Amino acid sequence: MIDPRSTPLALTAAAAALLLAGCSYIPTYERPAAPVPTTYAMAPAAAAGAAQGPTATAPWQDYFADPRLQQLIETALANNRDLRVAMLNVEQARATYQVRRADQYPGVGLAANASRAPASGSGDLTNSFSVGLAISAWEIDFFGRLASLKEQALAQYLATEEGRNAAQVSLVAAVANGWLALLADEELLDLSRQTLSSREESVRLTKMRLDAGVASELDFRQAESLTQAARATLAQQQRQRALDENALALLLGQPLPSEIAASLTGSRLVNAPAMAPLPAGLPSELLTRRPDIRQAEQQLVGANANIGAARAAFFPRISLTAQAGTASGELSGLFKNGSWGFTIAPSLLLPIFDAGRNQANLESAQASRSIAVAQYEKAIQTAFREVSDALAGQATLGEQAVAQQRQAEAESARLQLADLRYRNGVSSYLDLLDAQRSLFTAQQAVVQVRLAQLQNQVALYKALGGGAPAPAQPSS
After folding, report:
1. For the sheet containing 125-140, what is the strand order?
2. Which residue from 51, 388, 398, 452 has the least number of CB within 10 angstroms?
3. Distance of CA 200 to CAs 93, 102, 220, 233, 422, Å?
4. How far is CA 267 from CA 189, 230, 231, in A?
5. Sequential DSSP letters for 61-91
């Protein structure tokens, strides 16, 4: 044990060490420039949208107004397993950060020792007992190695948090798309049932005309063929309806609620609550709107901090082992006056030869940062592409939907005229069948374009970072 009177000297040395600690070799972080144009090609109102503010960040409850869809989204947020894994990843990253932060502080424990050994000179066996508080190999962070590792762990934690936010945005959009697909399936099923019913009636009438000698067997077989085609289409759509419901159930983490499944009967996409138009704003706003971009940037920050830790490894590593308590040659004398004291044992390790390990670690860290820069830029480019695609759809799908509806109306009028001409013997039955086939195809296309239009609005909401939680705030 050291004489207690030397304590001020030891405290002075420790204070000096703490004052010197905090040196950092982390490179100054600079956000890379966004490698995308400053505006969207198909968004002439982009500047106005930017002035109005980031509307897309409104909560999903305000954007998706259908109460049934809101219930489904809430169920998915509570039960979806992928989102649950993302949340657990956040907890794991938080714990890792806390471990790194704890490395900066000394670990204090209770130490007790007992030994029996020959005394120097006489060779007589002597006993030694000690008990007290001990600090074992506490690394004093002169060159910021531990601080760099802590900053890397913090950035990884924040990146994981943003990953959870991105998973939530994707889940909300996937549930909305799944719900719209079910609405379209119901509408297509009703259309197929009506078409099959009308064609079965056409077969019945054609059979009566054949029996009466008014129609040919060719007319009957053509009508029968078209009926079977409608029956096959109905079976295909029933299968697709089941597949879409199964996909939605996976997102929900449970079967589709029975009351919502029952409410789907007779649903029409045209009756779905409208979603508010979204101003695209400027591409630069995606850097703060989209959680996947924020995640990529935090990963870049973490890779940058790793360089600081790799640089610090070239410098001496100083650690401290200390113990304060009582020691005695007899167990009964441990707590008597004069037995108190402390020991302090600093150590320094300066790397001289490591076969290039530290240099390789530094080069690896620098390469990791370059990879993170490329991944960050790719995340921005991907986001720009997704917004641009959604804006292109917004600019053209509306016009396509109007044209498709008008085509269906024209095909309906054509069918009426073809039926009238056939009944009056002016045209063949083939013309009537062709008109029926064209009308059915046009009606299906109307539903599919409406679905694409609504899902494009969901895609734009997601691409603009809609409904994403606020960015996580760094904290030391």
Report:
1. 108-118, 125-140, 317-328, 340-349
2. 51
3. 63, 77, 11, 14, 18
4. 10, 21, 21
5. HHH---HHHHHHHHHHHHH-HHHHHHHHHHH
Q: Please give the C-alpha separations between residue 254 and each of 48, 74, 406, in angstroms, as whole numbers.
A: 42, 12, 40
Residue whose pair of structure tokens reads 């714990």 in the numeric block: 95
Measured on CA atoms in the order 416, 417, 418, 419, is the torsion positive or negative? positive
What element of type H or E holds 394? helix 357-423
Residue 328 CA: distances (Å) to CA of 111, 188, 323, 335, 340 = 14, 91, 15, 8, 9
Q: What is the CA radius of gyration of the chain?
A: 37
Of residues 153, 158, 151, the one with CA closest to residue 27: 151
Each of the 476 residues of the chain gets a pLDDT tens digit; together they read: 434 434 443 443 454 445 444 578 899 999 999 999 988 887 645 444 444 444 556 788 889 989 999 999 999 999 999 999 999 999 999 999 999 998 888 888 888 877 777 766 666 777 777 787 888 888 888 888 999 999 999 999 999 999 999 999 999 999 999 999 999 999 999 999 999 999 999 899 889 988 888 888 898 899 999 999 999 999 999 999 999 999 999 999 999 999 999 988 888 888 888 888 888 888 888 888 899 999 999 999 999 999 999 999 999 988 888 888 787 666 666 677 766 777 888 888 888 988 999 999 999 999 999 999 999 999 999 999 999 999 999 889 999 999 999 999 999 999 999 989 988 888 888 888 899 999 999 999 999 999 999 999 999 999 998 877 766 665 55
| Angle of CA points 435, 439, 445, to nearest 5° | 145
Measured in residues, the chain has a length of: 476
26: tokens are: 């982390």
Cα 138 to Cα 141: distance, rounded to the nearest angstrom: 9
Write the single-letter amino acid at 95.
Answer: A
Is 277 exposed, middle or buried, given 0-12, 13-18 or 19+ CB atoms closer than 10 A?
exposed
Output the CA–CA distances (angstroms, integers) from residue 41 to 75, 286, 287, 343, 429, in the order listed. Answer: 38, 16, 19, 72, 50
What is the pTM (predicted TM-score) of this model? 0.85
Q: Which of 295, 296, 291 is nearest to 465 (CA)?
A: 291
Using CA atoms, how far apart are residues 50 and 56, in angstroms rounded to an integer? 11
Q: Give DSSP secondary structure letters for 286-304.
A: HHHH-HHHHHHHHHHHHHH
What phi, psi does 115 have (nearest 5°)? -145, 155
Buried b (16+ CB within 10 A) or exposed e, 86-107: beebbeebbebbeebbebeebe
- Whether 226 and 197 have beta carbons less than 8 Å apart is answered as no
